[in-house]
Specification:
The structure holds three protein chains of three kinds.
Chain A (H helix, E strand, L loop, with lengths): L1 H5 L9 E9 L2 E8 L14 H5 L3 E3 L8 E3 L1 E2 L11 E2 L14 H5 L12 E7 L2 E3 L3 E3 L16 E3 H8 L12 H31 L3 H10 L5 H27 L7 E8 L14 H15 L4 E6 L9 H11 L2 E5 L2 E6 L5 E7 L4 E6 L2 E6 L1 E3 L3 H8 L24 E3 L9 H19 L12
Parallel strand pairs in A: 8-19, 10-17, 11-12, 11-17, 12-13
Antiparallel strand pairs in A: 1-2, 2-7, 3-4, 5-6, 9-18, 14-15, 15-16
Helix pairs in contact in A: 4-8, 5-7, 6-7, 8-9
Chain B lengths: L7 H9 L5 E5 L10 H19 L6 E5 L5 H18 L13 H14 L1 H8 L1 H6 L10 H27 L2 E2 H8 L3 H13 L3 E7 L2 E6 L6
Parallel strand pairs in B: 1-2
Antiparallel strand pairs in B: 3-5, 4-5
Helix pairs in contact in B: 1-4, 2-4, 2-7, 4-7, 8-9
Chain C lengths: L10 E6 L11 H10 L3 E7 L5 H13 L4 E6 L2 H14 L7 E5 L1 H5 L6 H21 L6 E4 L3 E5 L3 H12 L3 E5 L14 E2 L4 E2 H14 L3 E4 L3 E8 L2 E8 L2 E7 L1 E4 L3 E3 L13 E3 H10 L7 E5 L16 H15 L4 E6 L6 H13 L3 E4 L7 E2 L3 E6 L4 E6 L2 E4 L3 E3 L3 H8 L26 E3 L9 H21 L1 E4 L4 E3 L10 H5 L5 E6 L2 E6 L9 H5 L5 E3 L4 H14 L2
Parallel strand pairs in C: 1-2, 1-3, 3-4, 6-7, 6-14, 7-10, 14-25, 16-23, 17-18, 17-23, 18-19
Antiparallel strand pairs in C: 5-26, 8-9, 11-12, 12-13, 15-24, 20-21, 21-22, 27-30, 28-29
Classes of the chains: A alpha/beta, B mainly alpha, C alpha/beta.
């Protein structure tokens, strides 16, 4: 990534979208919308002071909603360019409220609240679509109760939980515990505030809140002050009760040590995507091995129809996972996930080897979600005038694996079909080769920026 | 850089400066990223071990092992075993070694000179051809024959370096050298004659009836 | 070479937290404090990620504002990050070879996660050694070497031919060496290709015709590469052709030697008649199946995914499904059953083919390798796990799906080119994820089933990809060679004895007659900097840039003094 950012022959237009394209192979004119960041890329040094001082916190999409970020932010720590971006939906200043803190603290003078989207026109010889994929939203599968059961997460969420730079510094705490802890924090803050308020009332009237409330309940008055005292006291009681319950729930909170991985969530499923997403078997095995490396007591069960460890060294990796990392492979499709005691998800499945329906409780269930065509691919395909396949991936044929239906426009990676990293990297070179064949036949092209 | 870059003279020097053990881990034969560097490394370490044994350093302080970059468990095993060995031996020049400090330090200085010398380096470098394709007369040495020759060279080279070491301090006669180094006078005489012929030593004068020899300083160290 | 006065040396040390990868396990403050005490160190800074753009900017700022003339980064592995840090130094005006990297992640925080004190101690030692070496580093200049714009492609199968055509279209000369008498490789032996059921021979013929017609491509069939000398840009290759040995100057080499199917001698009663391989079935289908064949049973994972060959050969399942569909379509009376362990129908197209096969009536039965199918006179016995009982399937023809194996001569090729193969004999790429089509050796690339069994889509993609990788040095016309190589540092000391020449594994040294007598000469581009010569020269005339005796000794001294 950094190499791309630094290469003299690469112009990186991040936070931009292709709006229009015309011409033909060897001579395309592409119009790109460069979205307003409200931060001057040339001035920003990526120091991050603005993010530190920004008063607005927003749910962090990069950490799969498991952590928080500020309204002025970098998508992730090592992102290129390191230029921060202001999120116009949440920034106080851009929403007409008083703030402007980031502008004040920025020593580079890079914050610009007046920045507008810009249209850029490029002359290019060939186009490569490498728009990737989206993770299938498993909430569509009612029987897996994703979002209903807190301790059911997607593989990519689990990836963040495992990551040393993720929201839990790599310790696999369960979302139920994380959520409870977050709620405790909020409630404690509120409790402190109401505590101070109650203390003021008690001092003013020289009696305890409990005494007052008992009397007030028996004989309510119209006095606004007393009314407020009663309300605050009542809320405080409810809050303390909730806090006690939460604290009780998290007092034994430990990292998840019994993991279930459910394969083909949204893939090989006629209701959603009939295709196999190709890489999910391997990433479940990988996540299970890493979880075991982080905490050697961790055991995992991978539920799959076939375990498709297909690739150089993959089958060996799968076997090693079973032998050394506490992974059990169960052949069968999971029918349902229900919530059992202790917020433990319970997996209901048919073990095809023994032909019996079984139930097993886990600390955490990870859904290996399908590789879905990325949102907006239909619009992109229309803009580029390339055909899509039945599922919404950019269409190619086996004997020309990176050529789209439009000459001069190529595809690589998961925009064309689900594939793993080595395959994507190899295809990226293939697409570069096809593009080079076009470019080096035509005249050298010059880039021109307008507006 | 490769394990083949390892200069045995620097190894001896490091021990002289206080190293207690040195483990060299290289690729498997045939897998060397630099084709044949690991053969060289092994030959150098093997030779140095023999020399160490000769001068009184426990040869277990030096080891050449092999594993591939994919064999974490093997590597850990190698390191742990070696670590245990060195801990058992204790600090250099203590109970683990035949010669104690501070005498050992002088011995290591001699070893460094031996390992930096022309003869040892030719022999080490040519080990593989000598034991596989043969010397210039087509004679192929077995590992055993080669090692016997090496041991002889080690003895000779050490004694020569010890003589040079003594002469570096002051001019001495054959009898004096024989006395301080515990080497028979006839052998001392043979070495000194050879050194004189090669221009390393010269006659300084006659003291009593014995000629005294001095070191001729060499431009290239 | 100009040498800095010791007093002029200003070292900056940047210690990376790597998020919590390092900082979570080492005492970073102690490391920074320690670095500050070392000689010549004038600036120490800790970074969350030294490799991030802001971290890089800090290094540049340090060089410019603190007037640093040596930079040490203590972070991760130089394998991935040294080039980045070096070029960052260069961008700030510092010679990139005045940079030294210390690995405190892989060697400290990762391997000693549970021992914070000891791991920190080890990191201190490593940093101390890095700093000591940095003080003695000398600037070096990258060596430029010309690249012959002619490519050698070994193997004339679809992957090699695709690569050849791509390079030829880009205007480079290509020499294809094929050991068989005809180009086309595996495609010549196959019937139809999934999932589109394209005729394999047609695709082969079409590609071969384009190759033969291209003026930039020279084809040698029934030919072998017998000798490869030289290095990227300047390989001297000897090809044994039908008209004798030819010496050809080559810039880059692509290995596309393919793979070969396992012949399952002794497995499931293999006889090549009633019990055949998928490979043989292709030929039978091309000729037309015997009308008497009414029941076909295919067995997957024959000779693979076992103790002897633990790997899954990736494409045997799709081959079986494809052939099953072909049989069902052409001979609707013929029943096909596939006995499998896992159906490896990964991806969009394969899974679609899998579904089509079920719609076409192909029957699938999962078997347990502990209880494998039994091939009998006219039946195949298998335990059906869903029915929970043994059953016998009628079988006029048993087809064994055997894996594609590395070619028998892959090892020879590997030695010829000095490139590695993996434990299964397939060629080993430079990096499994990030450099799938490059070898670790510069100027040599790989594609197709020589790397690992590939279907047509993958082989073609890799052929194109290898061509793209190979075209980088070809289009630049030159390569840059790392100057960390052997140098004759003291010409007067050299006696021209030739011991180093005899030991150099790369033929990078030669003795030349000079005005001062016989002296050794280093052939820069051929030298890989292994250092055998410098460790052998008793005159200390040869040295290795950035690994000099003085630098190594300084590191040893630092280690012995840092250590309590």
């Amino acid at each position: 990534m950094l190499d791309v950012g630094r290469h003299p022959n690469i112009d990186l237009l991040a936070y931009s979208e292709v709006q229009h394209i015309e011409g033909q192979a060897g001579n395309f004119k592409v119009t790109v919308r460069k979205k307003a960041r409200y931060v001057d890329e040339d001035k920003c040094t990526g120091c991050g002071l603005c993010s530190e001082k920004c008063p607005t916190t927003v749910v962090d999409a990069f950490n799969e909603g498991l952590g928080m970020r500020r309204a002025v932010y970098a998508y992730f720590a090592q992102g290129i360019p390191s230029t921060r971006t202001i999120d116009p939906d949440h920034c106080r200043q851009l929403n007409g409220k008083k703030c402007g803190i980031c502008q004040k603290v920025c020593q580079a003078g890079a914050i610009d609240y007046t920045q507008q989207d810009r249209l850029i026109e490029l002359q290019v010889g060939a186009v490569i679509a490498a728009v990737g994929y989206d993770v299938f939203d498993p909430a569509q599968i009612a029987e897996y109760r994703y979002r209903e059961i807190e301790n059911v997460v997607t593989a990519i969420e689990f990836e963040r939980l495992l990551s040393a730079s993720g929201p839990t510094s790599g310790h696999v705490y369960r979302p139920s515990d994380l959520n409870a802890k977050a709620e405790i924090q909020v409630l404690e803050k509120q409790a402190a505030k109401s505590g101070r308020m109650l203390a003021r009332f008690e001092k003013k009237y020289g009696r305890t809140s409990a005494d007052f409330f008992m009397q007030y309940q028996a004989a309510p008055t119209d006095d606004a002050d007393q009314e407020k005292w009663a309300r605050v006291y009542q809320e405080d009681l409810a809050r303390k009760e909730r806090l006690a319950a939460l604290n009780d729930a998290v007092k034994d909170a430990a990292t998840a040590k019994r993991l279930a991985f459910i394969q083909c969530v949204g893939s090989r499923d006629f209701r959603f995507y009939p295709f196999c997403s190709g890489y999910c078997c391997m990433h479940s095995i990988k996540e299970a091995i890493i979880a075991n490396e982080h905490e050697p007591q961790t055991v995992s069960t991978i539920f799959g129809m076939d375990i498709r460890a297909v690739g150089k060294g993959f089958e060996e990796y799968k076997i090693r996972g079973g032998n050394k990392s506490g992974i059990t492979y169960v052949r069968g499709r999971v029918a349902e996930i229900i919530e059992g005691p202790g917020r433990n998800p319970v997996v209901v499945y048919e073990d095809t080897r023994t032909r019996s329906v079984k139930q097993e409780a886990f600390d955490l269930v990870i859904l290996a979600t399908a590789c879905a065509p990325t949102r907006g691919i239909a619009e992109l395909a229309a803009t580029l005038n390339v055909a899509l396949d039945d599922y919404g991936f950019i269409k190619t044929v086996p004997s020309a694996p990176v050529d789209t239906s439009m000459r001069g426009i190529f595809v690589c990676g998961c925009a064309g079909a689900p594939m793993d990293v080595p395959e994507s990297v190899a295809q990226a070179s293939s697409a570069a080769e096809r593009a080079a064949e076009i470019i080096f036949q035509s005249d050298p092209v010059k880039e021109k920026a307008v507006a | 850089m490769c394990t083949g870059r390892l200069d045995p003279a620097i190894v001896a020097k490091a021990f002289k400066k206080g190293l207690d053990g040195l483990l060299v881990v290289g690729c498997y034969f045939g897998d060397c990223h630099y084709i044949s560097g690991n053969y060289q490394a092994q030959a150098k370490i093997e030779m140095t071990r023999r020399l160490f044994e000769h001068i009184g350093v426990n040869p277990q302080r030096l080891a050449f092992k092999q594993c591939s970059s994919g064999e974490a468990a093997v590597f850990v095993e190698i390191v742990n075993t070696f670590d245990a060995t060195i801990r058992e031996l204790g600090p250099l020049g203590g109970d683990g070694d035949a010669v104690r400090n501070p005498a050992l330090s002088e011995k290591l200085a001699t070893a460094e000179a031996v390992l930096a010398g022309e003869k040892m380096r030719w022999v080490i470098g040519k080990k593989t051809p000598f034991t596989t394709s043969g010397n210039m007369y087509g004679e192929i040495f077995t590992e055993h024959e080669f090692n016997r020759a090496i041991d002889m060279i080690i003895v000779e080279e050490t004694e020569v370096q010890e003589i040079l070491g003594q002469l570096r301090q002051k001019a001495l006669s054959v009898a004096e050298l024989a006395g301080s180094l515990a080497i028979p006078p006839a052998r001392i005489f043979r070495y000194v004659t050879a050194l004189k012929r090669k221009g390393f030593v010269a006659l300084e004068g006659i003291s009593g009836r014995s000629p005294k020899y001095k070191l001729i300083s060499q431009e290239v160290s | 070479m100009p040498e800095n006065h010791a007093s002029d040396i200003r070292i900056g040390v940047f210690i990376c937290h790597c998020g919590s990868n390092i900082a979570g396990y080492l005492d970073m403050e102690a490391l920074a404090d320690f670095a500050e005490t070392r000689p010549h160190v004038v600036f120490v800074q800790r970074n969350l990620y030294t490799c991030s753009e802001s971290g890089i900017n800090e290094i540049k700022k340090g060089i410019q504002e603190q007037d640093l003339n040596r930079v040490v980064v203590a972070s991760c592995t130089p394998r991935t990050h040294e080039p980045l840090f070096r070029s960052s130094c260069a961008e700030a005006g510092l010679n990139p070879y005045l940079f030294e990297m210390v690995n405190i992640r892989d060697q400290c925080s990762w391997v000693h996660m549970q021992e914070k004190t000891d791991a920190t101690e080890k990191a201190r030692e490593l940093i101390g050694m890095g700093i000591a070496k940095a003080a003695l580093l000398q600037p070096q200049e990258i060596i430029l070497s010309e690249v012959q714009t002619r490519a050698l492609v070994i193997g004339g199968g679809i992957a090699g031919l695709t690569a050849s055509l791509s390079l030829a279209r880009r205007g480079y000369e290509v020499v294809v060496v094929e050991k068989d008498q005809a180009l086309g490789g595996m495609l010549n032996h196959l019937y139809k290709l999934g999932p589109q059921m394209q005729a394999a021979k047609e695709l082969a013929a079409e590609t071969v015709q384009k190759v033969n017609a291209h003026p930039k491509i020279t084809v040698f069939t029934r030919a072998h590469v017998t000798q490869v000398k030289g290095f990227i840009g300047k390989f001297e290759v000897t090809v044994e052709t039908q008209s004798g040995a030819k010496k050809i100057d080559i810039g880059i080499i692509i290995v596309a030697t393919g793979a070969q199917p396992l012949v399952p001698e002794g497995l499931y009663g293999y006889d090549g008649k009633r019990t055949v391989t998928q490979f043989q079935l292709e030929t039978m289908l091309a000729k037309g199946l015997d009308a008497a064949v009414r029941h076909v049973v295919m067995i997957q994972c024959v000779g693979s995914r076992n103790d002897e060959r633990p790997f899954c050969a990736k494409i045997c399942c799709q081959t079986a499904v494809k052939n099953a569909i072909l049989i069902r379509r052409q001979y609707p009376e013929t029943k096909v059953s596939i006995l499998y362990r896992d159906m490896q129908m990964y991806g969009v197209e394969n899974e679609a083919m899998f579904r089509d096969s079920k719609a076409a009536g192909v029957r699938y039965i999962n078997y347990d390798p502990a209880d494998p199918p039994q091939v009998k006179a006219d039946k195949v016995g298998v335990y059906h796990p869903l029915l929970g009982r043994k059953m016998e399937l009628a079988a006029d023809l048993v087809v064994l799906s055997t894996p594609l194996l590395a070619r028998e001569d892959a090892h020879e090729t590997s030695q010829l080119l000095r490139v590695p193969v993996n434990e299964n004999g397939f060629f080993l790429e430079g990096h499994v994820k990030l450099k799938p089509l490059d070898f670790a050796t510069d100027g040599i690339f790989l594609c197709g089933s020589a790397r690992f069994p590939a279907n047509i889509r993958e082989a073609v993609a890799q052929g194109l990809g290898a061509a793209a990788r190979a075209s980088i040095p070809l289009s630049k016309g030159s390569v840059e060679v790392e100057p960390i190589i052997s140098v004759l540092a003291d010409e007067d000391a050299c006696r021209g004895c030739g011991l180093c020449v005899a030991l150099c594994p790369y033929g990078a040294l030669e003795v030349r007659q000079t005005e001062k007598g016989r002296k050794v000469h280093v052939i820069n581009v051929a030298c890989k900097g292994c250092g055998i010569c410098a460790a052998t020269c008793y005159q200390h005339a040869l040295s290795i840039n950035s690994f000099t005796d003085r630098q190594i000794e300084a590191q040893i001294d630092a280690f012995l003094t840092v250590h309590p």
